Structures are given as structure tokens and as C-alpha cells.
Amino acid sequence: MISKKEVEHVAKLARLGLTGKEIEKMQKELTLILNYFDLLKEVDVSQVSPTSHSILLENVDREDIFKEESPETVNKMLAGAPAKEKGHIKVKGVLG
Q: How far apart are alpha carbons 58 and 5 in whole angstroms?
């Protein structure tokens, strides 16, 4: 069984505040989950090829084509923007 200290450590990493009762509940639930992993380790998968998905997935790409908008459309879009700069919508920086 997972120790109380281990549950508290995982809760701290996840920034979760758990009560004593919740810690006990998590001890039992996490122990059951880890026991299930032990059960899965017993399954013979030697004849199964590794996959990242159970179904074939394909990324759908489209060509990025510039489309000139009418001045009326541009003005309507800019009218609803909270901040504008040089004819563009101004947004907060994402990368710093």
C-alpha cells in the first residue's frame, strides 16, 4: 500500500490540499491503480507491435493562403477589438 507520506508528496506536486480523510481515500485508490498496473504487466504482448494510437490518425493540413479582405470587413473586425495598432488587433505577448 502507498504510504501517507507518498500521497502527501504527490498532492504537493499537484498543488492539491488534501484533508486527512482524503489522504486515506487516495492511499486506497492509488494502491488499487498501481496494483492494476502490476496485473497489466502479466499480459503477454510479445506478438503486438507498438503503436502510439489504437487507430490510424493522420494530420489534416491545409495550405495557408492569404485572402485579401475588403476594407469594410477589416473595419468591422477592428471595431470589436479591445486594442488596435497600425490597422492590426493588438494582443498581449505570448512568449515573454
A: 44
Note the pLDDT tens digit of each residue in 6-36: 999 999 999 999 999 999 999 999 999 999 9
The three grid cell numbers given for residue 69, joined into one nine-digit string: 479582405
**Contact status, residue 34 vs residue 6, Cβ threshold 8 Å:** no
DSSP 84: E
Type of residue found at 61: D
Closest to 30 (Cα-Cα) out of 38, 78, 74: 38
pTM score of the predicted model: 0.47
The CATH code for residues 4-41 is 1.10.20
Q: Are 41 and 9 in contact (CB under 8 A)?
A: no
Residue pair 17/24 in contact (Cβ under 8 Å)? The answer is no
